[in-house]
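Reopening this ticket.

The earlier resolution said the output was attached, but the attachment link was broken on my side. Pasting everything inline this time so it's all in one place.
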Amino acid sequence: MADQERRASLKELALLFLRLGTIAFGGPAAHLAMMEEEVVRRRQWLTREEFLDLLGATNLIPGPNSTEMAIHIGHRRAGWAGLIVAGACFILPAVFIVLALAWGYVRFKSLPETGALLYGVKPVIIAIVLQALWGLTRSAVKNRFLAIVGLAAVVACYLGVNEIALLVIAGALLAAPQWARRPRRPPAALLAAPVAAGAVAGTATAFSLGVLFLTFLKIGSVLFGSGYVLLAFLRADFVHRLHWMTEGQLLDAVAVGQVTPGPVFTTATFIGYVLGGLPGAALATIGIFLPAFIFVAASGPLVPHLRRSPVAGAFLDGVNVASLALMVVVTWQLGRAAIVSATTLALAVVSAVLLLRFRVNSLWLVLGGGVVGLGVKWLGG
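Inline output:
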């Protein structure tokens, strides 16, 4: 019976994250909002508090946050097999979509038009994120001091303070009073942020699949923050150090990662294909995502123990409100870019009403937004 239940759980995870990986437009904040809707509200696999703890944990390790959250959820739901299934199923739809676009790019030297689709999808994504933020904030802000820390984090993030510094400072502010009350206890172990810094040696510019893999493995091991920071790392390595790409090619690669669903890190798949065909795409994808699986496998089992420690639990509370503050600022920035007309404003408002009042599944809203966007384009609006 246990084996049957495990297989059923793995099937549930696979179907859920294959679907999310196919429709999850909008970047990490939107991905996390969709996951919260599915695993907290609809399926009740996690409580909001558990979801927040995992969110805080993903922000303390390098790598793509939304992919790491999928891996965490898979591990909680079905153990080590679930960890692999959830992560892989969230990544693979985007990989195949990006591969198709990369093939077209290499063959025709251009990208298909995606602006019309995103015109309708983006305002829906804003509504989905706002719904998740509302529910998560109610769980995370447990007292007035946490509310003050959260508001201060929003202001600091908006002013450009480093994301990791914000998380650590917020955690320390909450943990300090607990630590002061227990002067004789040893410090609770906080989540480590392991860094595999192994920079690729050598200055040769000749293309090599091995160097391609190691370069993406390094980026996946050291990149904190959102996927939007990825551009700086890619530019430093592939344009300036290796001279394998031009600035224009790099911008095309990043554009593909931004406009396709799923993790922004599938930009690596595009670059790998352009540089080395299918073998290059496979090695680049494995290289950039492999560290996320390793970091989650190492840190995930620690999260429940951290919550049981007063000091580490308080630290997590601070990290959680700071994580939500980062989502608030990103949502504001995305909202300004997404709501650009009366049509997009109406889409956002209607989507929010359908989500909050009628609990409509976000899948139908995303598909509906895409249809509206294409319709407006065809009608010349």
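Reporter confirms the inline version is readable. The radius of gyration is 21 Å. Residues 2-114+131-191+297-337 form one domain.
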